[in-house]
Amino acid sequence: MNNSRACHQCKQGWPWKKGDGYLLCPSCESTSAYCSICSTVKDRNEFHKNKSRRTGVDTRCRACAVGYELQRRYGIDVAQYALLFEAQDGKCAICNLPSPEGQPLVVDHCHVGLQVRGLLCSPCNTAIGLLKDNPSVIRSAAAYVTANQAA
Q1: What is the CB neighbour count within 10 angstroms for residue 7?
Q2: Which residue pairs from 88-93 have beta carbons closer than 8 angstroms and sit at least 24 positions apart in sequence?
Q3: In the predicted model, is pLDDT for residue 9 greater than 90?
Q4: β-bridge mates for residue 135, sequence order
Q5: Distance between CA 26 and CA 23 in Å, rounded?
Q6: pLDDT higher for 51 or 20?
Q7: What is the CA radius of gyration of the chain?
Q8: How many angstroms separate the CA atoms of 132 and 151, rounded?
Q9: pLDDT per residue over 34-64, tens digit each?
Q10: Smallest Cα–Cα separation from 38: which of 4, 8, 75?
Q11: CA distances (Å), 145 to each of 55, 131, 141, in order?
């Protein structure tokens, strides 16, 4: 059964088949995408590419995708991330340096209890992960580096 549906962006009607799920007309879809979380039409550049989708972009805009992943992986929302970031003055909890330009601080969490410990730069997060999040191994590594520093 053919119907007409109004585009979420230009409000023009175009024919669609029941079950197609299209929210934007073909003309608007070439430059825009609809976010399934915030229910807004945004420029396609605000979405991650996803070749497996008919539209070629993800169903969530980048901002909503960040919030979704924070909640799914760590049980925190964007506001809680912002509080941690502010409490650490935007710096890594280990090296006390700001994250490299364009890279967010990553959420460090205990892999056993799953509680969030703080925000780290990617190199520090990788380092403690490679040291198995084991405090005694981390202390041994620090002692080794200290004992073998060049004078």
Answers
A1: 20
A2: 88/118, 88/119, 92/119, 92/120, 92/121, 92/124, 93/117, 93/118, 93/119, 93/120, 93/124
A3: no
A4: none
A5: 9
A6: 51
A7: 23
A8: 30
A9: 898 998 889 999 999 999 988 889 999 999 9
A10: 8
A11: 51, 14, 6
